[in-house]
């Protein structure tokens, strides 16, 4: 029997020709890509280095080389979250979203057997976001949309955002929620705790907001996956259930939070097989999707390593998490290999 298909659901990509909106709009809050050599660059914001990256971040052939080395059959491409720029003017946000979506679609078109694309939308303008989601999916052929964990400080359950989620459900477009603009960022300046503590907390807040809002009762077909194993969500669910029980005046749902948590999806980027085991117990193996955070420093190598290291799961559970679940989530069952 051949090995199971391995899909890396959580990867990020940026165009080598990323548009310089900082100069165009005279606003240095826009991320700016500055090449440092043929194989490296820096993403800068307000003149300061936000992140150093290599050509892995933009060169599909370099990515394929790494995929072949690590046994990854397919990568799902999505933008780097700092480029969401929901704070910007809606027209500038739309321009940036279109540029990124066009780029991702071009990579998928050139290498259709190795890449699947997810796009981005300007959530600061819901009408434009829905229109760009429709273009990204129906014109460009992207298979989902990545969104941030909040929109200018608004949690994802804010009523102003509901039409977007309703449109995604009606259009059958899956959503990938990635943390960004983390809560309490003024307290996360040391030790890179924005990444290690802030992002898991931010993700749990985003997931909790959706779970407790009643959105999943209203939109039962909505498919949402949360990055980084749902952050701290799996571990605080009993507390959320207890709150639902003792404060009935806060309830917007027919069932406790843990019921809805089993409807959502999560990537497997938790590093520790014991954490993965806990997630499987909480959510079930069918809700977990292998993802690495390629090409950044915190990535797992290879994608799905934590699944490989888990000694107490069946071959079928491993097959699901390593590839099948990603394809199910994205509506691409035709890509299944035996």
From TrEMBL:
<keyword id="KW-0479">Metal-binding</keyword>
<dbReference type="Pfam" id="PF04909">
    <property type="entry name" value="Amidohydro_2"/>
</dbReference>
<keyword id="KW-0862">Zinc</keyword>
<dbReference type="InterPro" id="IPR032466">
    <property type="entry name" value="Metal_Hydrolase"/>
</dbReference>
<dbReference type="InterPro" id="IPR032465">
    <property type="entry name" value="ACMSD"/>
</dbReference>
<keyword id="KW-0378">Hydrolase</keyword>
<comment type="pathway">
    <text>Secondary metabolite metabolism; quinolate metabolism.</text>
</comment>
<comment type="subunit">
    <text>Monomer.</text>
</comment>
<protein>
    <recommendedName>
        <fullName>2-amino-3-carboxymuconate-6-semialdehyde decarboxylase</fullName>
        <ecNumber>4.1.1.45</ecNumber>
    </recommendedName>
</protein>
<dbReference type="InterPro" id="IPR006680">
    <property type="entry name" value="Amidohydro-rel"/>
</dbReference>
<keyword id="KW-0456">Lyase</keyword>
<dbReference type="GO" id="GO:0001760">
    <property type="term" value="F:aminocarboxymuconate-semialdehyde decarboxylase activity"/>
</dbReference>
<comment type="similarity">
    <text>Belongs to the metallo-dependent hydrolases superfamily. ACMSD family.</text>
</comment>
<dbReference type="GO" id="GO:0046872">
    <property type="term" value="F:metal ion binding"/>
</dbReference>
<feature type="domain" description="Amidohydrolase-related">
    <location>
        <begin position="7"/>
        <end position="332"/>
    </location>
</feature>
<dbReference type="GO" id="GO:0005829">
    <property type="term" value="C:cytosol"/>
</dbReference>
<keyword id="KW-0210">Decarboxylase</keyword>
<dbReference type="GO" id="GO:0016787">
    <property type="term" value="F:hydrolase activity"/>
</dbReference>
<dbReference type="GO" id="GO:0019748">
    <property type="term" value="P:secondary metabolic process"/>
</dbReference>
